[in-house]
Design goal:
- With about 250 residues, this protein is α+β, with helices and mostly antiparallel strands.
- Among the domains are: about 60 residues, no CATH class; about 90 residues, Chitinase A, domain 3 (Roll).
- The protein is built from ten helices and six strands; from the N terminus they run αββααααβααβαββαα.
- The strands form two sheets. Strands 4-3-6-5 form a four-stranded antiparallel β-sheet.
- Strand 1 and strand 2 form a beta hairpin.
- Helix 2 crosses helix 3 and helix 5 crosses helix 9.
- The longest helix is centred in the middle third of the chain and has 27 residues.
- The chain is elongated and about 90 Å long.
Length: about 250
């Protein structure tokens, strides 16, 4: 008989996260809390989530014991909170289904598009600590050495050395001033004839190509634009007013 009781008790604990004062809190609630936390599922995170469930349940049980839920002021606040949650949920559903007007999308796109100005550069570089090493590398390249192979072997930049010093397409505004100043003066295929000193060390820069900055098409950034517009408070206010006008127009108010 004791074995049966033990087995039943083990099964009960397996189905529940915790049993508090005889009240069972299902394991599914613990699983959901862990999932919502966005953290890796591990014993420490589960212990933290379990403590949150225990705290919440203790408060609920104490509220019931003290009878505070029966107080009119408490019930009013609970109703206000409920209505607030429903208002937000209704508006979120309306905004998602109605979407963003095409005119709003085009206006936002024109604003974003205007920010794509200037030029961008495809460059490679070799970074070393000493000026003497940089001068030696420049001499080696001028003597016929392969820039990319030398970058892989000698560059101290961990992000680009493995790619032959390739930094990809960059804006002059995204780089340290000394680097940018030397870079924009280079023609395609040209290499700096003197080391360029920056806070990181000494650079040898190679210009691969350059081009005018091209704005992405509307279709390419449509989703990002929608998110940007829907996060705007002025848009939210206007959309909420639109929703309420439609609801009132359909309602029978006597």
């Amino acid at each position: 008989m004791s074995l049966l009781i033990s087995l039943l008790s083990t099964a009960a604990f397996a189905q529940n996260a915790v049993i508090l004062n005889g009240k069972s809190i299902p394991k599914s609630q613990l699983d959901k809390l862990v999932q919502k936390s966005g953290q890796p599922d591990n014993p420490q995170v589960r212990d933290q989530a379990r403590e949150m469930l225990v705290t919440r349940e203790l408060i609920l049980q104490e509220a019931d014991k003290r009878g505070v839920i029966q107080k009119e002021s408490v019930r009013d606040q609970l109703e206000q909170a409920r209505v607030g949650v429903l208002v937000a949920a209704v508006f979120e559903d309306y905004a998602e289904k109605e979407g963003v007007a095409e005119a709003d999308l085009k206006a936002a796109y024109e604003t974003v598009k205007s920010q794509y100005t200037g030029r961008e550069y495809h460059v490679e570089h070799i970074l070393v600590e000493k000026e003497s090493d940089a001068k030696a590398i420049i001499a080696q390249i001028k003597a016929g050495g392969n820039f990319e192979d030398i970058a892989k072997a000698k560059s101290k930049d961990p992000g680009s050395a493995k790619d032959g010093g390739d930094l990809g397409w960059v804006s002059d505004k995204a780089l340290v001033p000394e680097f940018s100043k030397a870079m924009v003066q280079l023609k395609n295929g040209q290499i700096t004839d003197k080391p360029v000193k920056s806070q990181f060390g000494y650079h040898i820069i190679k210009m691969v190509d350059s081009r005018d900055v091209k704005a992405p098409s509307l279709d390419e950034i449509k989703d990002q634009l929608k998110q940007m517009i829907m996060a705007d408070q002025n848009w939210q206010k206007a959309k909420f007013s639109e929703m309420m006008q439609k609801l009132r127009a359909k309602a029978k108010i006597q």
